[in-house]
Each structure stands twice: as structure tokens, then as C-alpha cells.
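job 3f2a | input accepted
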Amino acid sequence: MELSRRVRSLPSSSTLAVLGRARQLRAEGVDVLTFAAGEPDFDTPASIIKAAEVAMETGRTRYAPVPGDPDARSAIAHKITRENHIPDVTSDHVVISTGGKHALYLLFQSLLDPPLAGQEAPDVLLPTPAWVSYAPQIRLAGGRVVEIPTTPESGFKMTPAQLEASITPNSRILVFNSPSNPCGVTYTPEEVEALAAVVARETARTAPNLVVITDEIYEKLIYGGMTHRSFGACAGVSEQTITVNGLSKAYAMTGWRVGYIAGSGEFGRTAASAVAKMQSQTTTCIPAFIYPTIRVALEECHDEVETMRLAFERRADLIDARIKNIPGLVCPKPTGAFYVFPDVSAHFGRSSAGGRRLESALDFAEALLLEHHLAAVPGEDFLGCGRRCVRFSFACSEEQIEAGMDRLEAFIEGLR
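job 3f2a | predicted structure (416 res):
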């Protein structure tokens, strides 16, 4: 039996690999502190759970429409219009999918084609470091990843000049993620507007088929007085922007698997129809009893979200202060999501106290886990300068952050 080239070339998730190794060590009785998981450590708000219970008790257990329950899609469209200020969004522009990852997969499959003989693969512009699943999903759909590199020194942000220089007539998609996984940084409204102006100008001049996919899954987890600006709300680009979001991060609902896409105008409606067609041949719909929870989350859980955001902000300040006091780590202050992504390459070429040679982020993370029982995600799969970085999630208690940073500091002090 032979597997397809597609699956043979597909990398496994480095995040899930680290979590699996950490679970194995814990099962062996090792006291592992995990900073790898990309999910809140809070419980789902009680009103959301109650809405699902009521839905099940009242018979919401059958198939739902492929793009999602009409009331839930209307709630999302209202939220996108009211909060994100994206124009011309109705329920017909919205498709609800099995998590944000599935929404992205369906979008790439709907917008990209593998090249025919003699053709170039369509270019997908990707600021890097970037979340680990973007590049594999792009390649599965037949696209070519064109990296736009950022660094800790640039705040892990691409500039308008970089974006302009990357756009060609073959550019099909720009992927934009703010706040960022893995970098933990947020573009200011002014920075988003400047990038949108480049897209508007270059669409008219260079790349008429360019579409922006903006992943805003962390939009409500922003710190330091910053505010979120949706790419699709910027002048001149709303009808070529597809917003991807979901309930996983802001509402502590990772296991519920609720994601969605929302477009604007005629193209947005066309894109939603295409995504729904793709979904009809894959998952069909999410469980029907989950749809009522979407309206409850979006309209009734503002206080719970703010409580979580404030806790994450305190943790961001704490882990930032600790990392800045550890020699050789370079990392911008986290302003969104719940990650820090320090450059650890100053320690490459050294050996751990256990005799492990550190030549890469993977070596660093493995030695840290095996010798000090601290689990973090090596940055190679995030591309770009991620090869020099390690991701720490601060979706954990302040006590665990203190204990984990003590272990990180002890690990680095032991290098020779």
C-alpha cells in the first residue's frame, strides 16, 4: 500500500508533538510545566454551556443547514458590522465551520488551484514567522508560499514597503494575522490602514486577483491600551477581504470547534457560497445544538471575555518582565494573543548541563523539556526567523509562569 504524495509531504503539527511528549512524561510521573498549548486555561462561560444544554433538551440534535443556522449567521453578521465596522455583511456572507483551522482550509481550497503543466503556482504572501498550519494548508491547495520576513527587532511586523515589494501579478492571497500566533504582537490601526492602502493600490496596478485572508481569532485579547482594526474595515479593500474568526480563544471554547468566515459585498457572497459548497462535501455542519451558543457568546459574554483579557494582560506583563531579565533572549513585548516568541539563538553553539549540544530551536526546546521539564514549542515550523525562536504560551496561571521562568533561567544559567 502506498500513501499519497500529498500526505507524505505534509508535516505533523509541532505544537501537538510537544504536547504529546509532555503528556508522556507526565504519565511517567515527571512534573512537567507546559507552555505549549494554544488554548485559554479558563472554563467556558456558564451561559454558553446552558444554551447548549437547552438546545439539546429541546431537540436541536439533527442536521443543520451547511453554512450554519440562520440565526447564528445573522448574529455573526451583526457582530462583524457593529464591532468590526466591515460594510455590507449579511448572513449570506457568513459560513460557520468546524473551527478556524477548518475555515482557513476551506478558503484556501476555494481560492487556489494547483498549477497546470507549464503554469506557475499561485503565490500566497505570508508574513513570517506565522502559525504552523498556514503554509501546509496553502501547499495542499496548490499555492506557493512567498514569505515576507519579520524579526524581533522589527516587532515581528511587516512594513508597507515589504508588502509592496512582494506583490506581483501572480499574487493571489495575502494572509494577515493580528494579533499574531506565534509572535504575540498586534498591528496598530494606523499600521493596518497603511498595509490596506498598499493592497488597494497594488490591486489596481499590479495584482487584480489579490484577496486578503485576515485571521482575527485573537482580536479580543489585546493589551497595553491597543485597539483592534479589522483589515476588511479599511477603505478600498473590504470587498476583497475575507475575515476568519471563531469562538475558541476569546470565549474559552477550543473544544467546541466553532469557526467562521465572513466576506463583504458581491465577492464576499461568492466566496461564502464556494466555502459552503466545499463544506457540503466534508463536514456538512457543526452539531446543531452548538449554534445557539454563538449568539449567547457574541451578545451576552462581554464581562467574562474582559475578565479573561485582564488576566492575560497581567500575565503578558509578568512573562515579559521575566524574559527581559534572562540573558541572551530577544523578544518584543506581547501586545495580543497569549504568546511570547523569544529569539534564543544567542545560545546556539553551547551545551546544556546534561551535555546536549544546542544548534537549533528544536535542540533548545528538547533539552529544556528533558532536563528542566519545561515544555515550549520550537520555532522551526513557524518559518522565517522562527528557526531561531521558541514559543511560550502564557495561557496558564501567574504561579506557573513564575515557576516556568525560574526553570528557563536555571536552564540558561547551566549552559556552557
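job 3f2a | The longest strand covers residues 171-177.
job 3f2a | closed
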